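Researcher: Quick test of sequence recovery. Tokens follow.
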């Protein structure tokens, strides 16, 4: 692939790390697959301009935490994908999806015992991305109504990302769900957390259990003299 056609989809801090993969045969195979699927009339989420969005919203220089899910939302509304390029993000429709609702409710319980009435259930999770949280799906694309359909094709990129970029930083990594956790084999971080995906709790109509993971991550950040993450959007007084 031609790097010049891609570089503006990444924050400039990622350029040196991403260019080798974009110009590789592995990346050519991914885009050949996506083009072939499109020719067959299959619809793909998210839209092309949002595929690499998590690397645009979060600077590599500011990276503190990586959240890893399975794949983007595979559902569409009014013939447009709900997925916006960030893990659990649903800013295009501006309607909070069940998995993100579970995430916010669990965070509220973990940090505030469920009594903080100022929490905003924001469909746009870029407020997390801008704090240094990479909101990453192990497959950056998926076929409409077929969850996980592109997991295999994106695996070479996931392997490259963790081995060549993330591992040297030794930042906390949170895997959400079994499919995402399958990529743990590429991780060398000393701070790895495995949780069920919030979607599973939504399906079962139960509360998602975070196992105090996000409190633990903030403690790690503070120990490393870094600012902690504000995991929910709050209505501040000024």
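Model:
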């Amino acid at each position: 692939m031609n790097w010049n056609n891609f570089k503006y989809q990444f924050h400039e801090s990622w350029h040196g790390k991403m260019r080798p993969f974009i110009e590789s045969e592995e990346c050519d195979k991914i885009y050949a697959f996506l083009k072939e699927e499109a020719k067959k009339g299959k619809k793909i989420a998210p839209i092309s301009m949002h595929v690499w969005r998590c690397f645009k919203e979060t600077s590599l220089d500011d990276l503190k935490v990586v959240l890893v899910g399975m794949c983007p939302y595979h559902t569409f509304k009014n013939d447009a994908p709900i997925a916006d390029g960030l893990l659990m993000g649903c800013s295009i429709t501006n309607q909070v999806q069940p998995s993100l609702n579970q995430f916010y409710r669990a965070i509220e319980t973990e940090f505030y015992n469920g009594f903080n009435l100022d929490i905003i259930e924001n469909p746009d999770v870029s407020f997390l991305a801008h704090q240094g949280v990479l909101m990453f799906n192990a497959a950056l694309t998926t076929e409409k109504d077929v969850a996980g359909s592109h997991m295999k094709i994106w695996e070479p990129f996931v392997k490259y990302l963790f081995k060549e970029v993330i591992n040297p930083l030794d930042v906390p990594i949170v895997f959400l769900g079994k499919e995402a956790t399958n990529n743990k084999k590429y991780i060398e971080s000393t701070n790895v957390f495995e949780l069920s995906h919030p979607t599973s709790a939504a399906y079962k109509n139960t509360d998602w259990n975070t196992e105090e993971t996000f409190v633990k991550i903030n403690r790690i950040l503070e120990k490393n003299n870094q600012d902690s993450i504000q995991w929910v959007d709050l209505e501040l007084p000024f």
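The domain at 3-234 is CATH 3.40.470.10 (Uracil-DNA Glycosylase, subunit E).
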